[in-house]
User: Fold LTA synthase family protein from Solibacillus palustris.
Amino acid sequence: DGSELVEVNNYVRANQAEPNVQMFGKYEGRNVIAVSLESLQNFVINNEMNGEEITPFLNSLTQDKDTYYFNNFYHQTGLGKTSDSEFIFENSLFGLGRGAVFFTHGENTYNSFAESLGENGYYTNVMHANSKSFWNRDMIYKSFNIDNFYDVESYDVNDGNSVNWGLKDIPFFEQSTKLMKDMPQPFYSRLISLTNHYPFYLDPEDMMINEFDSSSGTLNRYFQTVRYLDESVKEFFDDLKEQGLYENSIIVMYGDHYGISENHNKAMAQYLGKDEITAYDSALLQSVPLFIHIPGSNDGQVMEEVSGQIDLRPTLLHLLGIDTSKDMQLGADLFSEEHEDFVVFRDGRFITDKVVYAGEVCYDRETGEEIDIVNCQPYIERATKELGYSDQIINGDLLRFYDAETGNLTVDEK
Ligand code: GP9
Ligand code: MN
Assistant:
């Protein structure tokens, strides 16, 4: 009957982070261009492979005057991979511990990022050159109240411009920008890139650096497809400028989930110059880059806040001046003074500025040494609680009983 929502609601209200007054509404009315960077992990940023930069354009953004680069930001996805990252982004809730929430709960009631923007006069859409039913996107996007899904049918895809999973990222971004040019403004477009996807195949003409040399073909090729992704983002920025869409937009880009699984630990250790990859290392390797690029902001910084994908929704809504104090969300505004250095993974691991908790062991964040579990205990409880609340909301379809306009619960408070 929705009565579980009372406790969840109390927790969410009590743990809300106040917006940063300087940042709230500072970019009201701008277009939002969100880019999901397929399988991009943070370890390649500002790093080299055989003496060559892997992500020269993204590296330049880490020092750019208009870019906030978050170097302590983590994916929180589970088996739903890209779809989980989308779910977290839209709802500031976790995906599920089993299966993919996109499939299992596609018809729930949600109060998505897109819906909030829609209510504030935005034209909302997702752009992704795959068939619309993949990950059940066409269904759940209706539940998210996304106005339009530019799927593979909106793109010109042929043998010459595709590889691996489909349309290559460079033509994908180029064609997307042309479609964006005709959209009513302000718009919110979320673009999902695809070329940097396992098994990381590229046509020879798109290989801009050599392969790595290790026992893992997957890791060896990964550097090349990451390099291609970096190039595609660079050209995307140029395209946006050419079409006059750059200045009046916020461009947010983040890695959706890991690209290199633990099956490649030996090769990864070789690349990172370590003896082995421990549970501690694996947790830290779940870091994905986050860039919030705001043309003209002139306040670019490297942000060290420990954070995750669940924080994106409140952060962006606040930049646009949209109040979230009544929203049922578990993340917090990254620019808020009250944002905590704490990120929970879907499988119960977590990271703070002091500790890493993985494999039921508490590690010192700095040294990687095992420390007494009491150092992790309070966070273990909180992580369990937050994951549990998120599961309750989804499994019980509890947002049916919640009015996000007023913050009223339509359940009997006994
Ligand atoms: C498919 C793309 C990749 O459309 O989003 O999905 P993934 O395998 O990364 O979840
Ligand atoms: Mn993905």
User: Anything to note?
Assistant: The chain has a mean pLDDT of 97. The radius of gyration is 21 Å.
